Amino acid sequence: MLLDTSGLLCYIHQNELQHQEAVQLLNKASKKSLTHSYILAELIALAWIRRFPRPAVLAFVMDLLDNPDIETIWVEEKTHREAMQLLIERQDKTYSLCDAVSFVLMRQRGMTEALTTDRHFEQEGFVKLLQSAP
What we know:
It comes from Oscillatoriales cyanobacterium SpSt-418. This is PIN domain-containing protein. By secondary structure, this protein is mainly α. It contains seven helices and five strands, in the order βααβααβααβαβ. The protein has one domain (2-128): 3-Layer(aba) Sandwich (Rossmann fold), CATH 3.40.50. It has helices spanning 5-12, 19-27, 37-49, 54-66, 77-89, 97-109, 120-123, and strands at 2-3, 33-36, 70-73, 113-115, 127-128.
């Protein structure tokens, strides 16, 4: 399962409607989960915009990096370029570069599920594990 920005925000913020579901899904994950450096960068920026406590957010990200059950991919030029190509091919969509990197990595790894509320994953044919906020 890919750990996306919105899913991780639901996990760390108890006031998110999907918090309990995110905690349950992540805690019962039977296989190693995956995230990447662009998601972590996006998570930190978005958490700060939402005024989450800075020390708690940074500690959470460091815990993710140290967790043996979560693989963090450090996005290199080849993957970045593949994601850019996907964005060029899907100009009718509003995908972010972070989304596109996720899609590239998920396809490379044969992954189908993402801990996310982002409908873009469904648009690309993946399974969105959390419902979008109303």
